[in-house]
Design brief:
Blueprint lengths: L9 E4 L3 H12 L7 E4 L2 H8 L15 E4 L8 H9 L9 E5 L4 H9 L4 E4 L4 H18 L6
Parallel strand pairs: 1-2, 1-3, 3-4, 4-5
């Protein structure tokens, strides 16, 4: 989510429409504006990245980051993460697991598979907005990416 990439979309992958709306509201309050693209399950994440199905005609650009829920239908977030990280072109793409799961096994699995961060979704709206703002500040201003 570097500032020189602020016109690049952020992919939010979550099967809960309410959480997707929370993401959109939280990101709309930021100074830099990003388009928020949505995938409703892990299969749609892969379709998005590989320009398949409903995403076949989207712009040919990687998202600035993926915010990836774990518990989703068809293909869960952990399996989507595994598939993404198996491909060289996507190894440096920031993937932040943002989920309601606090299970130790999920945390371990996600980091072993190459997640860049694992965050538990807060229940409170203001805490959720604060979390999104903090994640954005970290990935935009604090984190150093490899030179491309």
């Amino acid at each position: 989510m570097k500032t020189d990439r602020q016109n690049i979309p952020i992919l939010c992958a979550d099967d809960n429409p309410f959480d997707i709306e929370l993401f959109k509201v939280a990101f709309s309050g930021l100074a830099e504006k990003h388009r928020i693209d949505v995938a409703r399950d892990g299969q749609e994440v892969l379709d998005y990245l590989f320009y398949r199905g409903e995403f076949a005609d989207r712009n040919r650009e990687l998202p600035a980051a993926i915010l990836l829920d774990i518990k989703m239908p068809r293909l869960d977030g952990i399996e989507a993460l595994r598939a993404i990280r198996a491909l060289e072109d996507y190894r440096e793409l920031p993937i932040i697991m943002i989920t309601s799961s606090e299970m130790t096994r999920d945390v371990i699995d996600c980091y072993e598979l190459g997640a860049n961060a694992y965050v538990v979704k807060p229940i409170d709206f203001n805490d959720f907005v604060s979390l999104v703002e903090s994640l954005y500040r970290f990935w935009t201003y604090l984190n150093k990416f490899p030179e491309s």
